[in-house]
Amino acid sequence: MNLVKFGSHALLALIFCGFIKSQTCLAQGAFPSMAEPQSSVHDILTGPQNRPRADTYFLLGLSNARKGNAPEAFRQIAIGMRIEPNNIRLLNLRAVLWARAGQKSQAIAEFKRILRMAPNDLFARESLDDLERPLKPRFAPIVHSSASSPQKREAPKAPVDTAPPASPTRVLESEYFARVKQKQRCYFNLAAIKRAQESKGQKDPAKKESLDLKALVGDGLLPSAPVCPDGGEYLWKGGAPTCSKHGDLPTIEAEVNTVFNGFNKGMQAKIVRNYSEALKAFEQVCVAYPQWGEAHYQKGETLFRMGEDNPAIEEIRRALQFESTNLDAKLLLANLYFKVGHREAALQLLDEIATGQSGTVYGLSARSIAKSIRSGRNYYQIFPPN
């Protein structure tokens, strides 16, 4: 996948994800201008090689906002705005904080100012609409809490926690990423249409602005007529293709590539077994998109390959909270439970997969592993090291 810069739609992801759940994972290529492949979140924020940038202070402000530390979040925003006064991410974050603190008039004025600078900013537009609709508040108040985090349990009370963590704000939940995958398919279609239409325009300039998918197929410029996965209609407007369901090519491209940028970096590093770099990328992805189940699964699987079993278990469980049907995650979790000595939890999970996925590769694999465990074989007899 090609990787691109921020899009206005991606702001909705970046800002709201930070408020949904306090966990230390992804700071991904969702921040392409600040998160280089060789940098972890900590490196980005503290490394002497990094000059101060507005995006750095956006991430610091976002982190503090998620922790309920609004004063420090505002302080970081102010520092970032001294570097770049019109940074849209910083302005949106400040408006969110004002809204959550009850300063509605200031938040509304700020969102309006943002829209004057960036009329197509979807996050600001939707936030403004919600603020001006009092019966449907978008923002939950910031709750300050000094309660200590719960102690880790010795053994899991249940093999999988399927209920997502409670959240005062339920924006950009796991369903968002399923929709982005659909948008990604639409983006590939639009990109193919653009290439084909431009080739046609070079041969016949008179037809450059007239889109005819059947003609493009007939001329051999497209293998078949592209179909939007969500039923949108493909049109040609302003020199570029657009989808009636998802929008124009640049908008979809920006959102899709922003979401998948850091994720792709992690996958590329993982393929070549550079697990430390893969982990950095997935940590960054999970910070910006804390409800993306697949990102948590990949982080957990990377930790497993690095021998970090207990952190891997926590991450895989987190993945299943947001994507309870991820069978790869369930099988890996059973593997890890058995490895660290939670035999019964592993068997319970394997039996669940074997029953629910009977006749599939997953079901057969789960049944075989469970049989081996019950026969008394140890972990490394079942899963020999590479």
Characteristics:
mainly alpha, Serine Threonine Protein Phosphatase 5, Tetratricopeptide repeat, Pantoate--beta-alanine Ligase, Chain: A,domain 2, 3 domains, 17 helices, 59% helix, 3% strand, globular
- Return the CATH topology of the largest domain: Serine Threonine Protein Phosphatase 5, Tetratricopeptide repeat
User: Given this structure, which CATH class of the largest domain is correct?
Assistant: Mainly Alpha
Instruction: Count up the domains.
Output: 3
Q: What is the total tally of β strands?
A: 3
**Helical content class:** 55-70%
Mean pLDDT: 76
Strand order of the largest sheet: 1-2-3
CATH architecture of the largest domain: Alpha Horseshoe
Briefly say what this structure is:
Helix content is 59%, strand content 3%.
Architecture overview:
The chain is an all-alpha fold and 386 residues long. It folds into three domains: 8-131, Tetratricopeptide repeat domain (Serine Threonine Protein Phosphatase 5, Tetratricopeptide repeat), CATH 1.25.40.10; 175-251, Pantoate--beta-alanine Ligase, Chain: A,domain 2 (2-Layer Sandwich), CATH 3.30.1300; 292-382, Alpha Horseshoe (Serine Threonine Protein Phosphatase 5, Tetratricopeptide repeat). Helices cover 59% and strands 3% of the residues. The chain has 17 helices and three strands. It has helices at residues 8-20, 41-46, 54-66, 70-83, 88-100, 104-117, 122-131, 175-203, 213-218, 249-271, 275-288, 293-305, 309-322, 327-339, 343-356, 361-374, 379-382; strands at residues 234-237, 240-243, 247-248. The chain has a three-stranded antiparallel β-sheet. α5 packs antiparallel against α6 (104-117) and α12 packs antiparallel against α13 (309-322). The longest helix has 29 residues, at 175-203. The protein is globular, with a radius of gyration of 24 Å. 41% of the residues are buried. Residues 1-51, 135-153 and 166-172 have low confidence and may be disordered.
